[in-house]
Structure formats: C-alpha cells, structure tokens
Specification:
199 residues; 2 domains; two-stranded antiparallel sheet; 61% helix
C-alpha cells in the first residue's frame, strides 16, 4: 500500500481538475451506464466505457503496488477514485456529487480526516509534511484535521497559523507587498500588542 504522501499526490491531481472537465462528465455518464450493465444489452460505446474504466482501475492498482507512480498513472488513479464515488451515488440513487464534494469524499476516505471544505483538503495535501514541520506542529495539524468538531475552513486556518509561527522572522517583519482586498479589509485591520496583524 502506498504511503500518505502518495495519496496526497492523487488528491492534488483531483484539485487540479476544473468543474467542467470533460473527463468528469464522461465518468459521470460511465457511472450511469455501469448501472445498466445487468440489463443484458451492450453497445460499442458501452464497451469503450468499460475499457476506459478498466484502464482507470489498472492505474489505481499500479499506484497501490508501485513505489512511485508516473504523473499520468497518478492522474488516472485519481480519476478512478472519483469514479468510485460517482458510481456509489448512482447505485444509491442519489445525485452524482459535485467536483468539490467528490474531492471531499475522496480525501475523507483516503486520508481519514474530517474535511468540511476544499480549503481544508488543500491545507492537508499541500502542507509540507515529513521534515517540514516540528513534531509538535505536525501533531497539532494532524489532530485538527482528524477532529470532527473542526469548523468550515478550520484546517486551512490552522495551517496558516502554524506556517506563520514557523516563518522566518524577516518575513514577519517585512510589510506585505501584495494582499488581496477580499482577504483583509484595510479598515478592519489592526495590530495587537505583540505586533501581530489582526484582520
């Protein structure tokens, strides 16, 4: 079985997809078609879809068995995980999840966290773990990601706070050169007694 780093790499592949990605539309159609496989009829298109699904499953198996997968194999394995969530929805006769919900479901299953938004997933998979943080910081972030009481965007806020605590002193003292106005309104900013900026 692959390590957590490999799984995070797959989830990064899903995060790179766009909501209108034609592959997602095709996989959603495939999920509906696979439900019909027991009806005893088949078309050329259905056979093509079956072959594509076998290719995705094969990539997932190669990903699990190999020490390091090529980017193309990772992408196909990631699509396999997304397809499995779509297929489960179709089998339960519920709507196929949106891209955001697909990513959240895959992340919850594969990483074991209680993610509530894409920002939480991004914080979990993009954060430099394994040597990038102290043991205390990794433990704190891990605890927050696995907490079922973490609010929306909680993990990403924790990641930002831990990152700020671990940033070199020079970066904290230099004035920000670019700051999104949507992130922090100038009229709502202040500086605490410790010198930390408050939005």
């Amino acid at each position: 079985m692959r390590d957590c780093h490999g799984i995070r790499s797959l989830i990064r592949c899903l995060l790179e997809l766009h909501i209108d990605d034609p592959q997602l539309v095709r996989l959603a159609a495939a999920a509906v078609l696979t439900r019909e496989k027991g009806l005893g009829w088949s078309t050329e298109e259905m056979e093509s879809v079956r072959q594509e699904l076998k290719q995705l499953e094969g990539a997932w198996r190669r990903f699990l068995s190999g020490p390091a997968a090529e980017k193309s194999v990772e992408r196909l394995a990631a699509l396999h995980l997304a397809f499995r969530e779509m297929e489960e929805a179709v089998l339960k006769s519920v709507p196929i999840p949106s891209l955001e919900e697909l990513i959240l479901r895959v992340a919850r299953i594969q990483l074991g966290g209680s993610f509530s938004c894409l920002e939480d997933v991004e914080a979990a998979v993009l954060w430099p773990r394994g040597g990038g943080l102290s043991a205390i910081a990794e433990d704190a972030l891990s605890t927050c990601l696995s907490s079922s009481k973490l609010g929306v965007g909680g993990a990403s806020r924790v990641a930002c706070l831990v990152g700020a605590m671990l940033s070199p002193k020079e970066m904290l003292e230099s004035p920000p050169t670019t700051r999104s106005s949507s992130m922090c309104d100038a009229s709502a900013t202040g500086v605490t007694g410790s010198g930390a900026m408050v939005c």
